[in-house]
Amino acid sequence: MDQRFQPTCQFSERARQLTSSAIREILKVTERPEVTSFAGGLPSPDGFPAEVVRAAFDRVLAGSARQALQYGPTEGYAPLRAWVAEDLNRQGASVTPDQILIVSGSQQGLDLLGKVLVDTGSKVLVETPSYLGALQSFSLYQPRFVSVPSDDGGLVPEALTPELAEGARFLYALPNFQNPTGRTLDRARREALVLASARLGLPVIEDDPYGELRYAGQPQPSLLALAGECGANVIRLGSFSKVLAPGLRLGYICASRPIIDKLVQAKQATDLHTATLTQMAVYEIVKDGFLAQHLPKVRELYRSQCQIMLDALENAFPAGATWTRPEGGMFVWATLPAHIDSTQLLEQAIAENVAFVPGAPFYAGEPAHNTLRLSFVTVPEAKIRRGIDTLGRLIDAASR
User: Which of 34, 56, 61, 329 qualifies as a FRET site for 139, CA 20 to 30 Å off?
Assistant: First the structure.
């Protein structure tokens, strides 16, 4: 384009701080059909109930088109809010529908929470490592991230000292099948975390997009349920992306009324409300217990895919490499010998048509460069085995 006719504008300081997601950049490479990709955290399309979704939209448009195609309340479609509250209470919480805000995917929920809770320089506590999408979302509001130590059991509650928590706006945590590590907090740690946060007056954002995808081990209570009378201290994020389909872009926030009221004001300035048609269709799907029939099939699909990857790792990865064994969700986290940089390994892997996500972008503080995330749910068995064989050979060569 002729330089004389290029538009000019001065970006805000916030815009100048924006960077692209490392995962999204890698996914550009994986669009090539010959690439075996363990990079994207995408649910399996084999688990999408396409015909059920189509029928639900048809019923809504046939019977309630005027309402479904109109603007709606910012808080969300009332029957769906009531269903979410009832579902949370069935799992041990004690909340009311007016504590539920429907959002356009839980990623929007993260953005709204950043808007209403974070000022420039605010201290925000995060796990080590943490969900890249949350770090990216909160970073827009220029917080000061402080990492909370984690080990093979996940976040270490004893690390939440008064000194660490002092002045922190909140702790962000994923207790179930964490992205990126696949780790799950056991009940003892959950109870300790809830008690510590209440004692310290530290709000906890419990992000739980994967909780319904457990295929091994024992179900654990949510932080919201464990909080009981201290429940006002827990802000819970949930999503329909992993249990139905991400294209629906539907999630929710559960929080105390003062927080919900402020989030509603922020959402009004963002998009007025989440799509009415989608909310009504999703309610039509879930209201009569469809998820209880549907989710066992999805869990079995993911269990099988996970086991294939774990077997492949056992066979192909050399001594000195370790990895998590998730009880649910979509991710395995691998730790390589300390001298191996997974970013450099990625370059070699892509040259052989295999992709993954290096671990470094998931750290708010000093990264562990010898880590990587593997997603298994969308890759066919034969490709999992070939792709892991390739990675194992490259790691073995780098270990010598």
Answer: 329
Question: 128: helix, coil or strand?
Answer: coil
Residues contacting 163, CB < 8 A, separation 6+: none
Condensed to tens digits (0 to 9), the pLDDT of residues 131-157 reads 999 999 999 999 999 999 999 999 999
Q: 21-41+292-399 is classed in which CATH architecture?
A: Alpha-Beta Complex (3.90)
Strands 371-375 and 331-335: antiparallel
Write down the pLDDT at residue 15. 79
Pairing of strands 123-127, 144-148: parallel
Q: Please, are residues 168 and 160 in contact by the beta-carbon 8 Å criterion?
A: no
Greatest Cα pair distance in the chain:
67
| Mean pLDDT of all residues in 35-50 | 93
> Rounded to an integer, what distance in angstroms lies between the CA atom of residue 203 and that of residue 349?
41
Q: Grade residue 361 by pLDDT with cuts at 50, 70 and 90.
A: very high
94-133, pLDDT tens digit by residue? Answer: 999 999 999 999 999 999 999 999 999 999 999 999 999 9
62-289 sits in which CATH class? Answer: alpha beta
Q: Which residue shows structure tokens 């099988």?
A: 304
Q: Are 104 and 251 in contact (CB under 8 A)?
A: yes
Token reading at 71:
């603007």
Closest C-alpha to 121, from 142, 146, 148, 147: 142
User: Dihedral (C-alpha) 48, 377, 131, 254: value to the nearest 10 degrees?
Assistant: 30
Query: How is the chain split into domains, by residue range?
Result: 21-41+292-399, 62-289
Residue 7 has pLDDT above 80, yes or no: no
Contact indicator for 178, 154 with CB cutoff of 8 Å: yes
Tokens coding 250: 């539907």
